[in-house]
Amino acid sequence: MKFLILFLILIGGILIYDLYPGNKIPANAIVDKIVVLKSERKLLAYANGTILIAYKISLGKNPIGVKQYEGDKKTPEGIYYINNKTAISKFHKNLGISYPNENDLKNAKQIGNPAGGSIKIHGLQNGLGFIGRLQTLSDWTAGCIALTNEEVDDLYNHTPMGTVIEIKP
Fold first, then answer.
1. Could you give the C-alpha distances from 144 to 16, 57, 99, 161, in angstroms and in order?
2. What is the CATH number of the domain that holds 160?
């Protein structure tokens, strides 16, 4: 009986965590910088030097270290910019990151592999949006930065093309 009660409390806690609404970016705010702290699994959105919001994120399946080549499942590190916004994609909405830059291309060439590309900030795979914040329990992307669908909607609506994104270890 104790096991059943503990199990129900655990399930209830998970549901509350997953379904409780998160914070949103203020209605009229425009994001002018994004900082990703890989080691903390956080994405910070700024306007005029002030943090608007912090999101918990998931990264590539092999997140430690600098992305070296296509297929290494690492999330890049460095300074990039938002170079694309796609409202309909395989992973809900997404914001494209300008990876690879010249330095990334040079480094990949030195080790004899393609640098890859298509690094995004995206939501959950279509049809799996119900997972919500539970997606942050593990790193699961191929090198992208993942948010919940609601979070990526919020960031997408407040982030213009050309916004700087700094991805730190």
1. 27, 10, 11, 18
2. 2.40.440.10
